[in-house]
Design a protein that fits this description.
3 helices; 0% strand; elongated
Length: 95
């Protein structure tokens, strides 16, 4: 019975963490899209041609990736993720 409870608890932790990470990524992506739309609408009426790229979204993206990698490392350290799962998720975040 303790093995079953441990398995159920592990599954609950993994699914809860995955849901939290997924929701956070979705909110950030929606925020970025809204910001890009706002920037494009602000640039378009001026007739300047193509919008000017800023380095801020690239910095935000790198910060997001670092945060995700830290969360994955924490899950691996807790024993929630195996080495293979960690490497797979790391490749997904970086690739």
């Amino acid at each position: 019975m303790p093995g079953l409870l441990r398995g159920v608890a592990r599954t609950a932790v993994i699914s809860g963490t995955a849901t939290a990470v997924s929701n956070r990524v979705s909110r950030r992506q929606a925020g970025r899209w809204a910001q890009q739309d706002d920037e494009q609408q602000a640039v378009a009426p001026q007739g300047a041609g193509t919008p000017v790229a800023t380095s801020q979204p690239a910095a935000d993206e790198m910060t997001d990736k670092i945060d995700q990698l830290k969360q994955l490392a924490d899950l691996k350290a807790q024993g929630v993720l195996t080495d293979e799962e960690f490497e797979s998720q790391k490749r997904r975040v970086l690739g």
